[in-house]
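Memo to structure team: turn this sequence into structure tokens by end of day. - J.P.
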Amino acid sequence: PVEVAVVQVRSEPFSSTVPITGTLVSLAAVDVKAETAGRVIRFDRMEGDPVRAGETVVWLDRERADLALRQAETTVQVAEATLARTRVIESYNCQELERARNLVTSGGITDRDLKAASVTEQEGHAQVNLAKAQLDQAQALLAAAQKQVRDCQVQAPVSGMIQKKVANPGAYVEAQAVLFSLVHNRKL
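Reply from structure team:
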């Protein structure tokens, strides 16, 4: 809010000044909140400082987020290796089933052996599907960890001026805690 003390009114043929006291209020005000918990490492701005939309204003400690990211990246690598391994086994099982079909027609194996080869081939397909699902799950965890790292840099959602600074460097903030308030003073 900005205090207004004087309004000047001009009307021909004379001019006069009328004192008025009031408050100007911004039509756009935003409370900017943390999306993740952490310690405020850097918050260089002060109340009254201008900021642009998308500009990083607050930095939170990312050590935990970086560790979660490394763990998620490793989980994806393990899931990819598991999928590759199960595809090799699936391919081998398909070849064995084909071999068993050829042998059953020539009388080299029994129908029971053919059924066992068929079940093994189906199990290979199921293992590949399971490995694909585990890879999808690992990739989702990786995306969440990447977002957590991004959330450690709090950006201004709109251009404006810092009206109120709630957190300072060294403070620990919870997720959804207000860090600062922005006002857009172009329209009052």
